[in-house]
Automatic annotation (TrEMBL):
Keywords: Coiled coil. SMART domains: DUF3585. Pfam families: bMERB_dom. It comes from Erythrocercus mccallii. Residues 45-149 form the BMERB domain. The lineage of its organism: Eukaryota, Metazoa, Chordata, Craniata, Vertebrata. Residues 26-82 form a coiled coil. This is MICLK protein.
Length: 149
């Protein structure tokens, strides 16, 4: 009897310890998952901030580019009038004015290419932001219970 009671006691203790062990493992897994979720959220926020800063820089560059294009346009109109003889060209000869006009056209084309590149970068940032939001939505839906899915 004594052995039987000792055996049943040790058996129940082992079951209790195994239940504690399972419970402890489950709690540890939950903590680990929460920590991972927190780190993931922090990474997402950092990526969003990087995109925001990059988008602000692109916007600033586009505004500066627009100002430079306006200044070139004003100078180009003045130069064209001088070439046509509508305005007083002063001491400039026609070859010098044509050279300035071609440089102006080249500068304007360069600015237009740069503007296209900036617009592509801006569009890329928008797509990255959209992808990030979709991934977040997917994570939220995957975290739901099976019944509510």
């Amino acid at each position: 009897r004594r052995q039987a009671t000792e055996y049943s006691t040790s058996s129940s203790e082992e079951e209790f310890e195994s239940q504690l062990s399972v419970t402890h493992k489950a709690k540890r897994a939950i903590r680990k998952r929460r920590k991972l979720e927190k780190e993931t959220k922090q990474l997402i926020k950092q990526e969003e901030l990087k995109r925001l800063h990059k988008a602000q820089a692109v916007q600033r560059q586009l505004e500066e580019l627009e100002e430079r294009q306006r200044a070139l346009e004003i100078f180009g109109v003045k130069l064209e009038r001088e070439l046509r003889g509508e305005a007083d060209s002063g001491t400039k000869d026609e070859n010098q004015m044509l050279h300035e006009w071609f440089e102006l056209v080249m500068e304007k084309n360069k600015l237009m290419r740069y503007e296209s590149e900036l617009l592509i970068i801006a569009q890329e940032l928008e797509l990255e932001d959209h992808q990030s939001r979709l991934e977040q939505t997917l994570r939220e839906k995957m975290a739901m219970d099976g019944k509510s899915k």
